[in-house]
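Structure Section — protein described below
Tokens — whole-number codes for backbone shape
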Amino acid sequence: MLQNNGYEVDAVVVVADDCDAIATAIENGTGDGARLVVTTGGTGIAPRDVTPEATLAIAHKPLPGFGEQMRQVSLKYVPTAILSRQVGVIRGRALILNLPGQPKAIKETLDGVFPAVPYCLDLIGGPYVQTHDEVCKAFRPKSAMKG
């Protein structure tokens, strides 16, 4: 889905449900120049679900609106979305989003937040991403449009 929407996917990294391993993987990705890091899974309330803690531990700025929107989208499909702890944060010039673990829920969640991602990347000094409108129409103020 990321590639279909105009994003270049450099790497897929699989790590254990371990706070330090997750934080290190995110730090490595952003240190290597990634401007969008997407995690999947580990956002529930089970003891092994530690992705939000790992993400918040290395964050420079939390973006509560992303988590709120992701839960709002999920609530359309399942009442247990209130148990989700998805977060969005900024680390340096990278946006990090914690998504749910199920493929269907990942797609639904991305559909709900993707319109804001390109402009967010603009604001934090990331690349200008031109999305494919048939996949997801990005929102940018007119003053932020290029070409």
Observations:
- Residues 38 and 97 are 5 Å apart (CA to CA).
